[in-house]
């Protein structure tokens, strides 16, 4: 890729509950270091059904969505793992770099050197437990970052914001 076509991008990365169950956080972050990205936001989130339906809006009417939610929320693993670790990362060609390191959606088809190929599996219910989510385009990165983060949880102003008054306090929201 030439200098001219390289693009500075943001991407949303989620370490799904199976990453936490298997204590893979360190390993996965080490893989991601290869992309030379800077983390500009990070937090632990308990995923509600509403958030899952918004995040996976393209899948919410699929027959497997209930099982996908059980997995993605961590309910499948018990209360200690009902959480995900969410990051916003920034860097040159961040979206395609992270997608490449993450690997194909189906862990059985993913290259074994990718995160999903190395650590993913298909559950007994047929859910692709593939350890990591990463945005697949600039449009979805923007949508997902707006969904998961408030502007003041990100260290830089990466998208336009506005200030509103709520209960007599000034609050910064996405514009
Ligand atoms: P992606 O995560 O590679 O972007 P999507 O098609 O957006 O793939 O699907 C979101 C997630 O839903 C996948 O990562 C996987 O965990 C699960 N998933 C998607 N399609 C299927 C399916 O056909 N069967 C079981 N699980 C699926
Ligand atoms: Mg996707």
Radius of gyration, whole Å? 17 Å
CATH superfamily: Nucleoside diphosphate kinase-like domain
Using the 3D structure, state the CATH architecture. 2-Layer Sandwich
The structural class is alpha+beta
Largest sheet: 4 strands, antiparallel
Distance from N terminus to C terminus (CA atoms, Å) equals: 33 Å
Shape field: globular
Order of helices and strands: EHHEHHEHHEEEHEE
Q: Bound compounds, please?
A: inosine-5'-diphosphate, magnesium ion
CATH topology: Alpha-Beta Plaits
Report the top-level CATH class: Alpha Beta
Unreliable runs, pLDDT <50, ≥5 residues?
none
Question: What is the average of the pLDDT values?
Answer: 96
Helix content: 25-40%
Count of the domains: 1
Number of helices: 7
Number of E strands: 8
Largest beta sheet: what is the strand line-up? 2-3-1-6
């Amino acid at each position: 890729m030439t200098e001219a076509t390289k693009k500075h991008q943001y991407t949303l990365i989620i370490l799904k509950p199976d990453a936490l169950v298997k204590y893979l956080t360190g390993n996965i972050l080490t893989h991601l270091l290869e992309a030379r990205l800077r983390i500009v936001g990070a937090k632990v989130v308990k995923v509600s059904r509403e958030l899952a339906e918004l995040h996976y809006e393209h899948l919410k009417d699929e027959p497997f969505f209930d099982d996908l939610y059980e997995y993605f929320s961590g309910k499948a693993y018990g209360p200690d793992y009902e959480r995900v670790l969410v990051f916003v990362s920034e860097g040159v060609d961040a979206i395609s770099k992270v997608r490449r390191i993450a690997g194909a959606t189906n862990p059985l088809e993913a290259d074994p050197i990718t995160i999903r190929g190395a650590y993913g599996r298909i559950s007994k219910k047929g859910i692709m437990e593939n350890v990591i989510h990463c945005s697949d385009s600039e449009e979805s990165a923007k949508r997902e970052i707006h969904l998961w983060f408030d502007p003041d949880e990100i260290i830089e102003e990466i998208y336009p914001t506005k200030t509103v008054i709520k209960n007599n306090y000034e609050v910064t929201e996405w514009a």
